[in-house]
Write a structure and sequence with these properties.
CATH topology: Rossmann fold
Number of helices: 8
Number of strands: 7
Shape: globular
CATH architecture: 3-Layer(aba) Sandwich
Structural class: alpha/beta
Strand order of the largest sheet: 3-2-1-4-5
Strand content: 5-15%
CATH class: Alpha Beta
Helix content: 40-55%
């Protein structure tokens, strides 16, 4: 299932980014490399300290919950999830913890993480970046050294670059923290779904370009590090 997830996602990203390659030069090439490497990331050489499931809408939650259960079975380390309830389209900690418990993840292995509001972002809105900030602070407070993050294949590249942007930033500087990626299982690409704070309705295949565009916008705004910086992080991590 995981191999199928990567294959579908990699081909979708490659097809969706061809036009960007010509329009944006290096951005397209760097985005293509980042996407493939994140979707086919190497396994950690040692057991990670924890697993983090990025918050998703109800329509996409099975992608991360099923893969999260598989990673728990492999590593037997805690699974952390967003700690609040019913915000930005996310069903909430209580709902996800209940589903994970039904999948035989022990309740004491399911940990809540508070997201951290980002300057110039709506205070009560959970975003990918605010989740990433909460994740890095959670790890830093506990002196954790590594994590496996899981998100649906269309969302995973932005999740990864968001975490890297936080751990390389001045406020939460934690450059030795190792972030590994695991794609959630692939759901039907032509199916319409809700994404992005629970307000964006689109087919999953359309979200490939939407996410790439978001990365370009947030990079230009300064919220995200340049893709070449994220690639350099991957090179140094390995």
């Amino acid at each position: 299932m995981a191999r199928r997830s990567f294959t579908l996602a990699a081909f979708s990203f490659a097809a969706g980014l061809v036009s960007m390659l010509f329009k944006h030069g290096n951005f397209g090439m760097e985005m293509n490399e980042l996407s493939v490497r994140v979707l086919a990331d190497t396994e950690p050489l040692t057991k990670p300290d924890f697993i983090y499931l990025f918050a998703e809408t109800k329509q996409n939650q099975s992608s991360v919950l099923i893969e999260g259960r598989a990673e728990y079975e492999k590593y037997q380390v805690p699974i952390a999830i967003a700690g609040h309830n019913n915000a930005s389209g996310y069903p909430g900690f209580t709902a996800w913890a209940s589903l994970l418990a039904k999948m035989e993840v022990p309740s004491h292995k399911i940990l809540p993480i508070s997201y951290c509001p980002i300057p110039d972002h709506p205070e009560k809105m959970q975003t990918t970046l605010s989740e990433a900030k909460g994740l890095v602070r959670f790890a830093k407070e506990r002196n954790y050294r590594s994590v496996v993050i899981i998100a649906p294949p269309f969302h995973l590249p932005r999740c990864f670059i968001s975490v890297v942007s936080i751990l390389l930033g001045a406020g939460d500087y934690y450059p030795d923290f190792k972030v590994f990626c695991k794609s959630g299982i692939a759901l039907l690409w032509n199916e319409k779904t809700i994404h992005s704070q629970g307000i964006l309705l689109a087919r999953r295949r359309e979200l490939v370009n939407t996410e790439a565009t978001s990365i370009a916008i947030y990079e230009k705004k300064g919220d995200l590090v340049p893709i070449k910086t994220a690639l350099a992080y991957l090179n140094s991590r390995d």
